[in-house]
Specification:
With 337 residues, this protein is of the alpha/beta class. The protein contains ten helices and 14 strands.
Length: 337
């Protein structure tokens, strides 16, 4: 249920209304937009009498909503969410970011070299895998804790913010100095992990599962947000279909659809979506044209010898070309207003 308040509502009346609602056992989320103040009523709203709410002078309208996700629902939050990264970088709400780096951290030389190269292309956030979920148990599993340390060395050297994937709650202590925690497609419905991340104060990059609906993605975001952490970034990374020519099928329609359903920023991963480096550029352009708030692209200095996903990785030189073409459509916006 959402309660739309009249302009410039009396604060004492807001307190009386929220106190009464809380006495009924429901939760309240207050959202102050540019033009409206909205109260989101969360929980068993069947006990709430709409006619009683309308008797409050400050109430303009009351609506019951059918979607099971509340915190992630645009009806609760008309204005786009701006996720703050570090002290001077934002994403969403008009702020566009390019995130780039290798699928896996392989060495200090490799990650620092790539970090320096993508920074020259305008990137402010470096991606790199330390803990790697792989289909085969015989594939490279990442450097794990040592990989985190190498990412932090690259951060110290270049000033770039870091995003890397977590696979299990037990790994959380390693992420103390990581700026954005990524939840991969395979863990999108690891609800115990999502609940734990809801208690952190770090931005969470949540990837859509290989065969999950948009509602299921938003319900996963709801798990995080219901714990108190509202800094969630959604990521469309392709879904599994009958097509075998590409690794996955990039769902471009998910971008405008999610924009309609939620206030959370949405970025796109054209690398994992296609699995082929020559398709990354056109899919990146398509994603930006469709309204994405950012891109996350795999870049490797030597893709042929990469320990993970070399076929979909761009060289720093090719990435520079991609970044320049993206800038012509959607300039990068780093600093907060």
């Amino acid at each position: 249920m959402i309660i739309v308040l009249k302009k410039s509502p009396d604060l004492d009346q807001i307190d009386r209304l929220t106190d009464w609602l809380k006495s009924l056992g429901v939760g309240i989320h207050l959202s102050e937009g540019a033009t409206q103040v909205i109260l989101g009523v969360i929980g068993d709203t069947s006990v709430v009498d709409i006619d009683m709410i309308r008797r409050f002078d400050i109430v303009e309208d009351v609506k019951r909503i059918q979607e099971p996700y509340k915190n992630a629902n645009r009806k609760f939050h008309p204005d786009d969410l701006i996720v703050n990264i570090g002290s001077d970088v934002s994403l969403g709400g008009g702020h566009f970011q390019m995130i780039a780096g290798p699928c896996s951290v392989e060495s200090e030389e490799q990650i620092c070299l790539i970090a320096e190269s993508v920074k020259k292309s305008g990137v402010r956030v470096l991606r790199g895998g330390a803990f790697k979920p792989r289909t085969s148990p015989y594939s490279f599993q990442g450097l794990r804790a040592a990989g985190i340390e190498l990412l932090l060395k690259a951060k110290e050297k270049t000033g770039l913010y870091i995003v890397t994937e977590i696979m299990d709650i037990s790994q959380l202590p390693y992420f103390e100095n990581i700026d954005i925690i990524q939840v991969g497609a395979r863990n999108m419905q690891n609800f115990e992990l999502l609940k734990e991340l809801g208690h952190t104060q770090k931005p969470i990059l949540l990837k859509r599962g290989l065969a999950n609906t948009l509602e299921e993605l938003l319900m996963s975001a709801e798990y995080i947000m219901s714990g108190g952490n509202e800094q969630v970034i959604l990521c469309e990374r392709g879904i599994r279909t009958f097509e075998t020519a590409t690794r996955n099928t990039l769902d471009i329609s998910a971008i405008p659809m999610l924009k309609n359903l939620t206030h959370l920023p949405i970025i796109v991963d054209p690398s994992h979506a296609t699995g082929l480096s020559h398709l990354v550029h056109p899919m990146a352009l398509a994603a930006v044209a469709a309204g994405a708030d950012g891109l996350i692209i795999e870049v490797h200095n030597d893709p042929v010898h990469a320990l993970c996903d070399g076929k979909q990785s761009l060289t720093p030189q090719i990435f520079e070309q991609v970044a320049q073409s993206i800038q012509q459509i959607r300039p990068f916006s780093w600093k907060r207003e």
